[in-house]
# Entry
Amino acid sequence: MSYAHTEVAQIAAISSNRCIGKNNELPWHISADLQHFKKMTTKQNDGDIQGIVIMGRKTFESMGSKPLPKRVSFIISTQMDYAEQKGLIDKNNAHVVHNLDDALTQAASLAHGAHLDTIWIIGGERVFNEAMMYTDRIELTHIDTEITDGDAFFPELSDNFIVASESEQMHDDKSYLDFRFVTYQKKAAE
Ligand SMILES: NC(=O)c1ccc[n+]([C@@H]2O[C@H](COP(=O)([O-])OP(=O)(O)OC[C@H]3O[C@@H](n4cnc5c(N)ncnc54)[C@H](OP(=O)(O)O)[C@@H]3O)[C@@H](O)[C@H]2O)c1
# Structure
């Protein structure tokens, strides 16, 4: 199920026990994965807007409270004055919204105008969970490590998602971690 005819995709890096975060940070640093995230969420086109991402307030803060370059960020928070607090009023690359429906509606409308096919859900745990019912595709980086003291997790995938493609196992020389990229696609409705 897409949203207003726009594909909804999620992207995350997860440990073997599905951990995605600890103390509002990523539990690892793998530069090839950050490159992968950038490449996936930024489409090289002629327009000013090269990607659209939706995230929760804590994920925004985990990235230094800065909108991602070349992309438009929708940040979800219940705090009515959050845009003002963060100096985001009148910014055209970052919009604070107060629920997921508003994020998806505004993101889909922007995607149509900017000729972008995909809206990216980039976390964290709560947003991944709530957006799952609208999600067509999931890009996961599986990191071969177990994080025992994590505090944010990626949901289990339902049987509706099947592996569409899978990279070889790769190795990060700095963190000594192995990882691979897997694309999951939602099965077409029967
Ligand atoms: N490994 C990865 O790929 C990856 C990706 C993204 C994030 N992360 C990690 O995940 C952790 C953050 O995730 P998280 O689950 O703790 O937080 P989060 O989902 O990023 O943010 C949660 C906050 O977003 C707002 N929010 C979310 N959904 C909402 C809704 N439907 N309606 C209204 N407000 C909503 C609320 O903000 P207010 O409290 O302001 O109301 C809520 O407290 C960090 O450790 C981060 O590093 C990892």
In short: The chain has a mean pLDDT of 95. Residues 100-114 form the longest helix (15 residues). The radius of gyration is 16 Å. Residues 12-13, 20-21, 24-26, 55-59, 62, 76-79, 98-100, 122-127, 130, 152 surround NAP (CB under 6 Å).
